[in-house]
Amino acid sequence: MSNTDNTQPATSTCSAGACGSCSSTSKTVDAPAMPGGQTYRIPTMDCSAEEAEIRRVLEPIAGITSLGFQLGARRLTISASAEVLPKALDAIRQAGFKPEPVDAAATAPAETPGDDHGHGIGAGAARLGLALLVAIAAEGVELVLPDTRANQGLGMVLAVVAIWLAGVETYTKGFAALRRFKLNINALMTVAVTGAFLIGQWPEAAMVMALYAIAELIEARSVDRARNAIKGLMELAPEEAAVQQPGGAWVTTPVASVTIDSIVRIRPGERVPLDGTVTKGNSAINQAPVTGESIPVEKAVGDPVFAGTINETGELEFRVTAAASNSTLARIIHAVEQAQGSRAPTQRFVDRFAAVYTPAVFVLAVAVAVLLPVLTDATWLQGIYKALVLLVIACPCALVISTPVTVVSALAAAARRGILIKGGTYLEDARNLKAVALDKTGTITEGKPKLVDQKAMRGDATAVRRLAASLAGRSDHPVSKAIAEGLNLEHDAVDKFSALAGRGVQGSIGGKTYVLGNHRLIEERGQCSAELEAELKRHEEQGRTVTLMADDQGVIALFAVADTIKPSSKAAVADLASLGVTPVMLTGDNEATAQSIAGQAGIKEARGNLLPEEKLKAVEELQKRFGLTGMTGDGINDAPALAKADIGIAMGAAGTDTAMEAADVVIMNDDLQRIPTVIRLSRKTHAVLWQNISFALGVKAVFFGLAVFGAATMWMAVFADMGASLLVVANGLRLLKANVEPARAAA
User: Is 552 a catalytic residue?
Assistant: First the structure.
């Protein structure tokens, strides 16, 4: 059978064969229905163990061309012929699942977290509450009423009712698993509760099932906090937008119906409904939901706006540049969903361990039941009871749930800061980074030239600056634009304006001809001097581009332009060094510029004049020298080096598809300090992961000892297992609010 899936495998809180009854922590990417495929909703399928069980029963069926699992939506798309499809559905039903055609389920009410999750619950909180009351009544009959046949019969009936109310789904899937010789939590609970009932411990069997189901419900709702952390982002963008009609009227329209190039209006205090480019107005936009920036960003005509951000001060009109389904916010959610669908190294280890652990404990339980009466004076009923306690303790939920909840919480915490981490592997590996290669332009620097120095060589300084602003204002060259913006003066009329290819511009102002150009132009005009050459050398050593203004008598003024470093770059470099990570700058700019910018940022090693393939070789060399190496760039020009690095990090990627796809980690704004934040988050995540694993295994070890050598009961086993599960979930959820900002930022 060909198993070509349309989705990433969903992050699961259990491993196939280990735990068939725990809460999924991911909202997986919905896969479109495949051509010729039929989609079904399976209410009790929402974690990868159940996906694995369904795969296993469908594999022997010839004629199935592909499967598309959507665990978040509990949907499965089967592409198969009309003759094969009934066989597939029958196999799924025999495995204990109930597939429903999507159109039949489309009108079903919205699912409540924790209800109908297929975790042995089979009902909502009200039904489980009733089950607990009936189980308590069964306990009361045994403890209070006389030990007569009638009372025993009443107790058994109450126990059966309680078990049915709380555990009908557990029994359905448990027996299906046992028929396939599959040991998961449903099978363990089925055997344990049935065994307890058969040896006369029916009140305890009823109470165990009720407590187990209630604990699962609480656990599922706790885990939903991690699952919904990203889902909440989808609610940031409004569902309607004010769209301008051809006649000029404004009509409120669902965002899903708004087409590209439509004009949308947003008033102060409203959220931006779609991505677009401002066409009218000025305002400050709070972009924290997308980029993590805490300070509002000023927006004017020509600037981009993103869905989900908040318009704070003025009214804006913008032209839509992306459909609602392809907005930056939608792509952020999609990227995090994909990240949640990839398993972290620790999770893979835990899943492999749990797949061995559960059968091993089952064998141990059988050995205890058989050998304890033989080797000691314990009765056969006592041996069987201890074995049943071991089966309840054997539930690996606390162990396997510890990793995905922690990882998903960390991914959500990063996304809230404008950091997209493309999977648990990169989240865990970031803590081991030893070196980070940094591109210069747009990463360490602002990425655009600015006027940083100016000097009038002769004449009135104010008049000279106005002449330069007039000439520069007529040119489209980036250096000229930087001079005009930096001077910010009114322009005089320029006549006979012309561009001097590769040299500068020329024009007449007030009847007199002036030039504004580079060193080469002034040399050709024979207007250089030793004093001027020394001044030029001083600026060039600092990585600046110098433009000179001259008339027929000689040079009038000097303007130095440079790509300045970002305000956060120096602090970010210091943070990296404090974390034991060596920053290295790689740039295509000349060596003098590279060394100047590196010195300003506090970087000790910088390499200039590098072509893209040479950056790749530089990353390879850093990997040999230091070990795990990251590469930070714009995700386009640095693609070879980003691909070669152990972790590729794209900077300033808001609205850029290419950058999102090229890198393993995406920083949605231009703040280099997000890289130390990723490393700190990775280290904290690793610590929480192993806290949870150690705690879960420690609890198991203690209760194993109590069960075999002490007086552990099934009640204690349930409380220990589910208590441990809830505690590791709570510990993992702490990462949603973890403080992983650089120390100076936190202060």
Answer: no
